[in-house]
């Protein structure tokens, strides 16, 4: 079932994602994350970062600049190769990737198509204030280049030894020709990359390790891990021995790349600096994934309909809020007081992402929390005032149980492990 349209509407309605610059008519392929979206995206990024840097040995992070020296993109090959041959319809002037159209007819109006021309998809920018002295450069077309640029800095300023990794989460910019498809193909997006530096003789072993480890990690987050699969590329870059994608229902989410000594070799050559370490130019296994694509696929995958209920069956670690707290009736001060106490305790002392809701009736509040994927709702009712227990309602089963207020912390902390 394709639920993309419903998910896109939900994203806007509930504050996950908005079209960029919308009050001015929007900008194609540019999006802003709203209050719930930023919480969920931050949760995802924190999980990735801690999996990389805490659960693995020998991985350190950087946060590189978006604007880099123009020579970077010559060395990386993007100035020459980051081009898409495009063809234009002579009648309706729609443009298409030459690879996407068969024959010479426009898929939209059957008009005649021009010969393909090359368009570079790097986003140019200028630095400097005086005309004639401005430097033309590019917003980074892929985040990983700043890892190569800082390879020597990291090696010299930390205690790493081969094999080791450098990770980064950061923005990348591409003048994509066929943007659209919501967050799938944007012109400004975020990538999470690992560059793993190793000795050539250990390359095969590490490639296999990272390929499988990344798949396991994604599977642990998705509601339906069977929707994820490997795709093996047949057309390879000249330095690559193999390349795989991790795909969600046939759409790329992350690439696992055999980069050999190509990147450090090229930057060594173009900069004139020695980028060797421990006597060799290390080889690289790269895992390069899209934060926004993962975000989108997680929403598509968790969107669930069960009779009248619509809920996001998100892994609680990713949900924007973990717990919602309600007083059964908003006009009973004794219930509100007790519910506020619990709300503040969970939020401020337990540091759980907790939200308060006292609008409408309880059914509407459950509905609203289901729709944004909140895994547990706590309701304070009259019995609470007598015996210090509350109801805890589980999002996925819609089942309620009665628990002592004093056990809530350990109950949620245990569930989130
Ligand atoms: P595609 O073939 O879909 O254009 P790619 O092979 O060019 O992707 P890479 O350059 O390997 O992608 O980038 C690594 C990851 O960055 C991709 O797996 C994807 O998740 C993400 N990504 C790439 N382009 C975009 C984009 N335009 N919008 C959102 N995410 C993107």
From TrEMBL:
Listed GO biological process terms: glycyl-tRNA aminoacylation
Statement: the UniProt record of this protein carries the keyword Nucleotide-binding: yes
Matching Gene3D superfamilies: Anticodon-binding domain, Bira Bifunctional Protein, Domain 2
Pfam families associated with the record: HGTP_anticodon, tRNA-synt_2b
SUPFAM superfamilies according to UniProt: Class II aaRS ABD-related, Class II aaRS and biotin synthetases
Residue intervals of the Aminoacyl-transfer RNA synthetases class-II family profile domain: 6-316
Keywords: Aminoacyl-tRNA synthetase, ATP-binding, Ligase, Nucleotide-binding, Protein biosynthesis
Any one GO molecular function term: ATP binding
GO cellular component: cytoplasm
NCBIfam families: PRK04173.1
Protein name: Glycine--tRNA ligase
Source organism of the structure: Candidatus Amesbacteria bacterium RIFOXYB1_FULL_44_23
